[in-house]
Amino acid sequence: MAVLMILLSTLNVFCGSLDIPMADVWRILCGNEVEGHPAWSVIILQGRIPQMLTALLTGMALGTCGLLLQTAFRNPLAGPSILGIDSGANLGVAIVLLLLGGTTSIAGLTLGGQFLIIIAAMAGALSIMALLMVLSKLLRSQVMLLITGVIISYVTGSIIQLLNYSATEQGVFNFVMWGMGNFASVGIERLPIFCILTCTGLLLALLLIKPLDALLLGDRYAENLGIRIGRVRQMLLLVTGLLTSTTTAFCGPISFIGLAVPHLARLALGTSYHSTLMPATMLIGANLSLLCNLLSTLPRDGSIIPISVITPIIGAPVVLHVILKQNTTKL
Amino acid sequence: MSHELVLQHLSVGYDDKIVLSDISQTLEAGQMVCMLGSNGAGKSTILRTLAGFQPALSGKVMIGGRDLTSLSVSERSKTVSVVLTERVEVPYMKVADLALMGRAPYTGFFGKPAREDRIIAREAIEMVGIGSLAERTVDTLSDGERQKALLAKALAQRTPVILLDEPTAFLDFHAKVSILRLLRRLAHELNRIILLSTHDVEMAIQLSDGLWVVQDGEITAGTAAMLTKNGVLGHYLQAEGISYDEKERTLKIR
Lengths: 331, 254
What we know:
The structure holds 2 protein chains of 2 kinds. Chain A is an all-alpha fold. Chain A has one domain (2-328): ABC transporter involved in vitamin B12 uptake, BtuC. Helices cover 76% and strands 0% of the residues of chain A. The mean pLDDT of chain A is 83. In chain B, 33% of the residues lie in helices and 28% in strands. In chain B, helix 3 (95-101) packs parallel to helix 5 (143-156) and helix 4 (115-127) crosses helix 5. The termini of chain B are far apart.
């Protein structure tokens, strides 16, 4: 799996929407200029490499998020997009882009503006998570929680529509472009902050391995095994909020990766234990997301397919598989 | 593990509703005690309180001379273990893994079990008699086998007190007898306090070391013989079409 990740990462650097000969890519990576094509260096070093790292980290983050949510809610269909958490982040971003900003694209925003978007996305994601945590106490049925997530998405969607209605043309365009999902939007300047935020989230997630294992049995059993449920829930809230909002704010809403990846990891390893499942989820998430990024550059004419077009095509079959498997027992 | 479980003027319930008040009882180590009572009488509430899932409204629970509320979550996890009614459904989890979960209070930050933890978990699985199922996943077990696997988890936790909420519900007749006999044997052999709630009245009367009859906001404790003699069981079981044969200690249903 790790080998595959290295391979895909390399492919991500060597293949792009613009054809650059392999040998020249290598020359640029070794620090040399390719004569007659000074732009190529910029494309590789400031475009493809940050984009590859972004895709890798986003995949890790979203997969981990999905795993945390599935365990926390004891629901195999939980994920940042299905539960409406990323729609909360969307709303936060929409408010900033459509109401406050409106004239500049994300990439053109000042650092302050970037922070504003992240904070808005985080506030949106955390409030939806908090709402879900409260509701999950009241809603015993797994299906009800999912339906609640869908309803939340509708509500935030309609608020976003309303914001769109009153926003400037440029603001709407920016928001739509952002909504298509794009690993390139982080870029070299914002890569450090993106790395710091996602890696913090991922490290914090690793600290939750033991409580997550106990939570597999349910809250009561976990508490009886010496887990401080309240604190663990707060941590889960923080970590999933941080990971979802960071990736959503920078790359747009990327659906299905969070939901599908933990299932692929479980299927591959045949375990529910987080000590092995979480690293596997991170690796598979990174791989899947690198693959999506690679696929997005398929039209060789210099344009790219939006990420949000690709991920459902890969993710939906996995989700269907899970539903069909659940169907035989109970949902 | 010579411990006593002492309830001192304990009142249990919720903010707006007292379910049982002023209970004073003592359980000795090496006993299996069955709690009888209608649904809603307060059996689960008292088990939840003893497990520390909900606070007592007043009074105290002392285990081995220590106040339950003074224990940290971690200390409590080494004092009381539980088997609950909620279903445990974890994909790919094997019986051996479930038993190993009982070692969580003793493992380190990442929960990695030591060799000793594996040995203790393995012993627990053998003790409940499902050694041959150790590598089976929990979702392939029968209801009775799953209860035993959960019991193995509780045993691996090495607590002086084990609480079980209706462990015989949903089981077929043979599995019910099997699990109750097992619990009694474990209480005796391992010198644990085992307290469980059940609706299987006749089996409880025949197999338990002691009974708690929960009715009308009170708990009456005693052996089956004592509770038969003083009429408590007769009163509890009395209903249309049912009579309690005090000599045979069996139920007659017309």
